[in-house]
Amino acid sequence: MSTSTWLSLRHGAELPIRSLLADTTYSTSVLQATNTQGPLRTYQDPESARVGSLTSYGLTSYKGLRLEGRFQYRKERQNGIGWKLGRNVSRRPYYFANIKPGDWDNDRYEVNLTGGTTFFGDHLLVAGGADYQVERLARYNDPRPSLNYYNLFVEGQVGGRIGGHTVALYYGTGDAEENGDVSNYNRAHDSFGEREYNVITTTGLESYNFARFGSYERPTTRTEVGVTYAVDGNHVQFTGELVGGRSESEFIRTVSDTRETPGTYREETVRGTAFLTVSQPGYRLQVRSETQYKDGHDRNEVFAGANYFRTGWRQSLDLFVHSRTDPLTLQATLDYNRQSVTDRNASHHYEYAWLAPGLSAQYSWTTGPRRYTLIPGASYRMPLSQSARVPRKNRNLYTKYVLAPDYYRHTARVVRLRGGVQLLQQFEKLSVGLLVEYRRRMAVEDGVVLGIPEFLPGETRNTISMTLQFFH
After folding, report:
1. Does residue 23 surpass a pLDDT of 90?
2. Reduced to 3 states, what is the DSSP secondary structure of residue 404?
3. Which of 36, 69, 73, 338 is deepest in the core (most CB within 10 A)?
4. Strand 236-255 relative to strand 258-279, pairing
């Protein structure tokens, strides 16, 4: 499969109708091992992380149906994570935390299934799918959380096709549940005198408390609506999608027979994607755009109203140029990110915006049944604006361990370097590839320092990965 065809399959559409827009069959299995380490991180990121994963994907036709499936298992070992006793805590106000860093052992399973068919001479299109996730996460030094998470999301689309134009309406709904229990192996750490081991309930940017609660539940519901529009011409193919969503996540903490709900977080999202392919005799041009907007706020039961507000806008643009005469692909990228976070009770507010242009290339050559590919690349992230209002009298542990490192990292100038090499061996009905990649992030200019933080990111972070690929 060519690079341009693979990009069309991966980015052409994300909603269930994609199985009916692709006219190819494809299957692959991937084994990957990744090692990441380096001090350019926040306090809630691992000092080092090792990840192993197994992924299998297939797209095929069967008795008039288009079927697509994906399975992935990830094994994660993460060391030195602080202020985190829950799952994905950095984008939500309510969670358990503690000061002392710890090591995590995580197992994550994910299954994605999609299918579709057509009626009335391919004029009516019907597609549906389901995504299911199960995760088990545990930390093996005090305090020791044991977490279980599941997520089931079902979706469907109905649309019509006239000539080369396709329009399909989309609806998706699902719910998730996260449950956690936190305990200390050493009972002496249960004392409030052991500050580093105290279980903290974070309820905003600076708002938190030390009330004794050892378990929590986080039920979440989400609903999405959207539309897909696609055009298939002789030299031009275009796919665009617009999806709006709303989620509500309640945080419930428990101890013995006592249940308490500090608050609920609600978030509305808008996501738009577009993928364009233009084919000419000497080259093929592909452009991908993705826009995401998020607007979230809480219902804090202590303050009987909204206290935490978060808005974000992320825009990414990718341009691919594929030569038809040479095995060369050039890619230019442009990423924009703007975030704003406010905690009214704590009088904490910060916002930032940055822009990251980048360039990369992919060059291949063939020797008999073997194909070699080089993949160099680089990008540069520059801050555009930043501001923070954190009164000195209101600065506390959260400010020093979480807010200040996060603000510093996003206001620093960072260079990203990438280098990769792939060896692909082709057999009669199977191709086997080995891909080795190295990525390096370097802070070339310090970020903005708030007050006297207890933790600050360093200057570098390195990732190396090895991927064994089977193309059936």
Report:
1. no
2. helix
3. 36
4. antiparallel
Percent of residues, the chain, with pLDDT higher than 90: 73
Q: What is the mean pLDDT of residues 2-17?
A: 78
Identify the DSSP state of 402.
Answer: I
How far apart CA 329 and CA 68 sit, in angstroms, is 27
Distance CA 168, CA 240 (A): 11
Provide the residue count of the chain. Answer: 472
Q: Is the pTM of this model over 0.90?
A: yes
Cis amide leading into 143 (omega within 30): yes
Secondary structure class of 400 (helix, strand, coil): helix
Hey, how many other C-beta atoms are within 10 angstroms of the C-beta on 184?
Answer: 17
Distance CA 53, CA 77 (A): 12
CA dihedral 162, 166, 169, 172 (to 10 degrees): 140
Q: How far is it, in rounded angstroms, from Cα 22 to Cα 5?
A: 10
CA distance 25 to 66: 9
Place of tokens 């905690």: 343
CA gap 62, 25 in Å, rounded:
11
- Answer whether 92's CB lies under 8 Å from 204's CB: no
In degrees to the nearest 10, what's the CA dihedral of 450, 455, 456, 460? Answer: -170
Place of tokens 């109203």: 305
**3-state SS of 39-97?**
CCCCCCCCCEEEEEEEEEEEEEEECCEEEEEEEEEEEEEEEEECCCCCCCCCCCCEEEE
Q: In terms of C-beta distances under 8 Å and separation of at least 24 residues, what long-range contacts does 109-113 make, across chains too?
A: 109/72, 109/73, 109/133, 109/134, 109/135, 110/70, 110/71, 110/72, 110/73, 111/69, 111/70, 111/71, 112/68, 112/69, 112/70, 112/71, 113/68, 113/69, 113/70
For the chain, the C-alpha Rg in angstroms (whole number) is: 24
